[in-house]
């Protein structure tokens, strides 16, 4: 892909939650969540639009708000969430070039299981899988894996660093040309090219080798988030892509500068780590339709839903989050109380609010008014081009539909993609068969 062109991933993580399933036209004619039919159709639409991939975040817990999970369950706030790996495998069968990004926790999974699963999935998808390697920070997820609360931040990142070391060893334990499949001699593989890793560290003891054939991509692509210095350092060292939520051109440039600096510190070319700028999108004919869509979406969920979602996303549990309290005062109190939430999202909230912005106002902004990628096809193309270059010109966008699935996704493909292609900002066809090559081979 030329240097001036960017990559596109569609975030499908929450299209069935947060009242999006109630939005007029969404999920129309499809069975409730659990049946894959709507995802098959979305995968076909994304491939028609030459998207690089579909993304699935994952949190293996049922968050509580003010000490109870009742509102989470009753209102369907980021709940339920099945394991996305079977869905990725199923969607790959109705597509040929579209890639898929699923999520694996480095805090609660084991690197051997992760390496084996991702290598196997890379074979099933014929080289079209990436995994979002996360350092988990949600309390209820910790409690599902045997911890009383979220482990210490420093401990989680030490574990994640060793996790990555083990992954690298395992993916390299079977050399690319090790497999023989010689019918005449019966030799399956050359044992001199299959290696034990004999890793023993603070968190893991793994003999190896990885008992899979070499991955079609060499190794599956890896994506990371992480706004903290530890997260940026980890991504600079091991990620192929990072996703981030910079809400202004200035913040995008600042985040990219931090990642470039972290890459330089370890001697890595920053162009090897693209950034996918995350946000919600809505294709409209003009301001009137944008406002009407926002109104319809806002009216589709109960008053407390944004508040419940914000409490979840900040990683709070029993901490009392009052809708009319000021964001700045609340975050200051949270820090003073020593609660272990997702600090990156708190920093983002401080950056994007004033001292008199209330929790309720910011929660609505997050879910509705804060949708950054809203406009006509031409306006979206203008904004995305500016944002791409402000963010360093390596990577692209990971966009979630604000309204209408699959209709909103189809509208982006039918109306925005042609504008991007006409301007030379996006591919007209896939040039390669694997996800890695479509991202990085120019």
From TrEMBL:
The keyword Ligase does not apply. SUPFAM superfamilies: Bacterial luciferase-like. Belongs to the NtaA/SnaA/DszA monooxygenase family. Residues 39-392 form the Luciferase-like domain. Signal peptide: none annotated. Keywords: Flavoprotein, FMN, Monooxygenase, Oxidoreductase. GO terms for molecular function: monooxygenase activity; oxidoreductase activity, acting on paired donors, with incorporation or reduction of molecular oxygen. This is FMN-dependent oxidoreductase (Nitrilotriacetate monooxygenase family). FMN binds at residues 58, 103, 153, 157, 228. It comes from Glaciihabitans tibetensis. InterPro entries: Diverse_substr_monoxygenases, Luciferase-like_dom, Luciferase-like_sf, NTA_MOA. The lineage of its organism: Bacteria, Bacillati, Actinomycetota, Actinomycetes, Micrococcales.
């Amino acid at each position: 892909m030329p240097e001036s062109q960017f990559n596109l991933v569609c975030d499908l993580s929450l299209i069935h939650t947060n009242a999006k399933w109630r939005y007029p036209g969404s999920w129309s004619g499809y069975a409730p969540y659990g049946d894959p039919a709507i995802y098959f159709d979305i995968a076909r639409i994304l491939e028609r639009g030459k998207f690089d991939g579909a993304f699935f975040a994952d949190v293996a817990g049922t968050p509580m708000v003010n000490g109870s999970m009742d509102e989470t369950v009753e209102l369907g706030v980021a709940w339920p969430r099945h394991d996305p790996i079977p869905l990725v495998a199923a969607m790959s069968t109705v597509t040929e070039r579209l890639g898929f990004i699923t999520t694996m926790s480095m805090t609660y999974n084991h690197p051997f299981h992760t390496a084996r699963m991702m290598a196997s999935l890379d074979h099933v998808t014929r080289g079209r899988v990436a995994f979002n390697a996360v350092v988990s920070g949600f309390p209820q997820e910790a409690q599902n894996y045997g911890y009383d609360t979220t482990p210490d931040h420093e401990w989680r990142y030490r574990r994640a660093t060793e996790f990555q070391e083990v992954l690298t060893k395992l993916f390299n334990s079977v050399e690319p040309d090790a497999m023989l499949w010689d019918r005449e001699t019966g030799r399956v593989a050359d044992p001199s090219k299959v290696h034990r890793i004999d890793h023993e560290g603070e968190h893991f003891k793994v003999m190896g080798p990885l008992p899979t054939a070499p991955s079609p991509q060499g190794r599956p692509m890896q994506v990371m988030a992480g706004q903290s210095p530890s997260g940026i350092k980890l991504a600079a060292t091991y990620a192929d892509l990072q996703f981030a939520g910079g809400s202004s051109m200035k913040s995008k440039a600042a985040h990219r500068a931090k990642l470039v600096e972290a890459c330089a510190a370890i001697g890595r070319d920053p162009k090897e780590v693209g950034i996918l700028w995350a946000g919600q999108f809505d294709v409209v004919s003009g301001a009137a339709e944008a406002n009407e869509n926002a109104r319809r979406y806002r009216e589709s969920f109960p008053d407390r839903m944004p508040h419940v979602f914000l409490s979840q996303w900040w990683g709070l549990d029993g901490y009392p989050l009052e809708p009319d309290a000021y964001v700045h005062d609340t975050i200051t109190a949270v820090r003073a109380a020593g609660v272990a939430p997702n600090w990156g999202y708190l920093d983002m909230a401080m950056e994007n609010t004033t001292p008199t912005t209330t929790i309720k106002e910011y929660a609505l902004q997050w879910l509705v008014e804060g949708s950054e990628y809203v406009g006509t096809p031409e306006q979206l193309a203008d904004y995305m081009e500016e944002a791409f270059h402000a963010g360093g010109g390596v990577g692209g966008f990971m966009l979630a539909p604000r309204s209408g699935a699959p209709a909103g996704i189809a509208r982006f493909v039918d109306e925005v993609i042609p504008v991007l292609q006409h301007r030379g900002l996006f591919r007209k066809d896939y040039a390669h068969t694997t996800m890695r090559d479509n991202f990085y081979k120019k």
